[in-house]
Amino acid sequence: GMAEEEPTPELLDPGIDSGHRSHLSAHKHLATFQCRPPKEYLELDNRWIERLRGAGLLTFCRLVEGRLVGRHDRARPRMMIDNSLITVLVDRWRPETHMFHLPCGVMAPTLQDVVYLLGLPIAGDAIGPRVVPASWRNHIYFVEIIIFTLLHAINLHRDTDDDSVRRSLEAYLLWLFGFIMFKNGTNNSVDKVLIPYAQEIADAPEDAVPLWSWGSAVPAATYRGLCDACIKDESNARFQGCALLLQLWSYERLATEPTRHSTTVSMTTMGRLWRTWENEQARCTYPNFVVELDRLVAQDVIWEPYSAEFVASRASYGLSSWCTSNEALWYTTASLVYDIYIEAHSTDRVMRQFGYAQNFPVPCVIDRISQQDHRLSRLGQPCSATWVHKVQPYVDAWADAHEHVVHPVGPHTEEWYQAFLMWYRPHTHCHVTYADTEPVTHEASSTDAYARHRDEALAGAVS
């Protein structure tokens, strides 16, 4: 799987590669990431519905709504996150391209995947940084226990006053933002920059709720989480971003995942189709997933899962209008923004996901976003208006995202695809498998982590 020729910066930067998990795995055993779910999943109160609909969040809220399992039990999640699956995707992510590098080419979740799987709006203002009171603790924090205490303290009876309904909605939104959409590395708190967004939605009149581009912010946060995670080797590392997006994306597009089903139930998004079949989700170990992706060929990929014919065959009652609105934005190469995170949306690298020929070579990500801007971080930085000024040009540019779209060079053809692979494969890492030339026999013990026996298992897979 190692590059056979000199790497090209369009695909592989030696400076990044030396600390990348796919490189480190040849010399040490790496642990899986932790994508811990919220302590409790929430059901929607009917009095929140109109504001959630106005904010473009209702479809997504229905996707992640908790399922009550008993009169006195907590609501359970509709779908658990598979840590091994998320980790094997992290190992394939390249910050140079903002893509997963696979044997069959490059792939990534795009805005098209976001709208079809999550039903989030991509039109609207970008979710840029906000100036928050300096009295709030730096970097985060609206702690999970406070959110649940507030929600349970406000017992929403039929005659509950309007202000209590608004405050309970604000607490719910902080839970939704902090523990599902934009999860940070602390596992029990919410980034404080999200508080103004939750407040403004909760306090808006039902017929004048602000509409932001949540559908572009979620992949921005997730791309940043992938860029950070792919160079981490700590045993207790936690994935930041929206793991749900990555999991549903892999289910939808990669044949290593559960068998696809059709349904006669109204689904609203393709993501809900997978939630319906939660009990049939396969659970593989990390080494199994590594082998599956190392063996991945083009025939294993569902390149166009959202074609009219494919959708009709699986969701005959149709989908939410969010899934097909603002189609022009699917092809934008405008930078995605979440808070101070500025991330490239490189649709020009994944044109086969739209049914078109993949042009190559493609400009490097750093040609669009400077490394300095891409690495902006709040860690150790004071809370000030400085961030707003730094990021504002990207926030403003999102308003014109529809003007910066990819123009296809033509329909996908096998000849063009093979030419792309001949350019792509020698210049990057297509595989993660590490096979020791002199494997040492190891007798498993009860204290072994999964990675202890990884070399044997994977060496056998490629022998």
Q: Return the average pLDDT rounded to an integer.
A: 80
Please work out how many helical segments DSSP would assign.
18
Number of domains: 1
Distance between the termini: 13 Å
The Rg value, from CA coordinates, equals 22 Å
| Biggest sheet strand line-up | 1-2-3
Strand content: under 5%
Helix content: 25-40%
Secondary-structure-derived class: mainly alpha
- What would the principal axes of the Cα set say about the shape? globular
Describe this structure in words.
This protein has 463 residues and is mainly α. It has one domain (14-427). The protein is 35% helix and 3% strand. The protein has 18 helices and five strands. The protein has helices at 14-17, 21-24, 49-54, 58-64, 83-92, 111-118, 144-153, 162-181, 195-203, 214-229, 243-253, 270-276, 286-294, 308-314, 371-374, 386-398, 414-424, 454-461, and strands spanning 93-94, 99-102, 105-107, 336-338, 341-343. It has a three-stranded antiparallel sheet. It has a two-stranded antiparallel ribbon with strand order 4-5. Helix 5 (83-92) crosses helix 13 (286-294), helix 7 (144-153) packs antiparallel against helix 8 and helix 13 (286-294) packs parallel to helix 18. The longest helix is centred in the middle third of the chain and has 20 residues, at 162-181. It is globular, with a radius of gyration of 22 Å. The two termini are 13 Å apart.
